[in-house]
What we know:
By secondary structure, this protein is of the alpha/beta class. Helix content is 41%, strand content 15%. The protein is built from ten helices and eight strands. It has helices spanning 14-29, 41-47, 76-82, 92-96, 101-113, 133-147, 176-191, 196-201, 215-221, 236-245; strands at 2-6, 34-38, 55-59, 86-89, 117-122, 157-160, 204-206, 226-229. It has an eight-stranded parallel beta barrel, surrounded by five helices. α1 (14-29) runs parallel beside α10 (236-245), α5 runs parallel beside α6 (133-147) and α7 packs across α9 (215-221). The longest helix has 16 residues, at 14-29. It is globular.
Amino acid sequence: xxxxxxxxxxxxxxxxxxxxxxxxxxxxxxxxxxxxxxxxxxxxxxxxxxxxxxxxxxxxxxxxxxxxxxxxxxxxxxxxxxxxxxxxxxxxxxxxxxxxxxxxxxxxxxxxxxxxxxxxxxxxxxxxxxxxxxxxxxxxxxxxxxxxxxxxxxxxxxxxxxxxxxxxxxxxxxxxxxxxxxxxxxxxxxxxxxxxxxxxxxxxxxxxxxxxxxxxxxxxxxxxxxxxxxxxxxxxxxxxxxxxxxx
Length: 247
């Protein structure tokens, strides 16, 4: 399993950031899973070069620009030089601020050029009875895959995060059966752009109300390869409990 911890802007204190990173590193030493921490950009430089084996670091976002006159932007080259292995791209919170599919695609291309693995976030904002939301999901994924060279399409990690499920209780969020169906649909779209074997190997994560009470069921019945965990990842005790529940 891949367990990616997106700290967002919850962790503002450097001491807490260091303590959280140390906790995750200890968990990684005793676990067969891969742990990825995505701290804020202000803390990323403190840790990124410490990544090794199943304990790696990710940027929460990155620039679509390659460099130059781009005030406030962090480029893929800069992230690579820090030792960053992954980059979260297309997160629902970035899309809500106006990020387009074209910009997401451009960021993925920049990341792959520097051998940074994109964690591509896709997901519907609402669900409708006619399942037209599936077409929106297809567009989010296909627009990126079409922009990427065929030999690099298998180098992505997909994070499915249905926006409507974020912040809900485990009962109100996605069931393991529903999640399994969505993973199959995502793999179907992947198979339209990749050979079947390669499509089957692309990791698919789930993000959306992942709690200690439902993570085991989602892991066992949801056909996912891991989780993108938000708020629950910034409390050491809660995150440790989550990890213990993952089979």
